[in-house]
Design goal:
InterPro entries: Bac_transglu_N, Papain-like_cys_pep_sf, Transglutaminase-like. The protein is an alpha+beta fold and 264 residues long. It has 5 helices and 14 strands. Helix content is 18%, strand content 46%.
Length: 264
Amino acid sequence: MRLKITHRTEYRYDAPLSYALQRLRLCPQSGPTQDVLEWSLNIEGATQEAQFIDGFGNDTRLVSIEGGQHTIVLEASGVVETRDTAGVTGKHQGLAPLWLFGQQTPLCTVGRGISALVRDIAGGTDVERLHALMNEVRERVAYRIGATDAATTAEEALANGEGVCQDHTHIFLTTARLMGFPARYISGYLRMDDSDEQAASHAWAEAYLDGLGWVAFDCSNGISADHRYVRVATGRDYRDAMPVMGIRVGQAQEELAVQITVEQ
């Protein structure tokens, strides 16, 4: 499937910014499930200081804001050709060792809820157990925007019984790692069947299985990633793969507007 994506992020401030620094992971790369045919990143009101591939293999840009800017606009756009591989991404590659994806993180730390969830996963093959985990997370945690935030942990989201794709993914990652599977966070885009306009970017998980390699599980939709998914960044959890993160100096209040379209 050929997908055209536009992701526009606009920051407005009620006072000049003395300084800000942002890390951007907004540029997908070609791989086993996709070919990036064209892509651009336009930046207004900020200056790109550096571009590099981070330890997880993500295209990463650093941009700075200085000199009294009131508005910053980031627009990533392009065309990606995707392939349906039944969720299989393949063998492990990159600088980050496989064992790193088996470790806990502050957002993915095992507690009583995750420990209890593991005990409820039925037996079977590794693939069957991970599909059962995906379905169990979807059943226990209802999708509701605004129920959580970027700092919500897997344990907190599971206890609340509400969250978004980020929370579903963190719960899956934490539990899969407890089950003995390396697991990683994927951020990107999903082409919805009923609308080109998207409320936000998407997130899902991948678990590593001997003989298959990395396999994708989207708890929010109850499926493995197919040709409607575009991968952008990966990491141990959301903080390693978040599209935009940064710091700013000053007392200015921030207003954020995001517009995303994913069309065939």
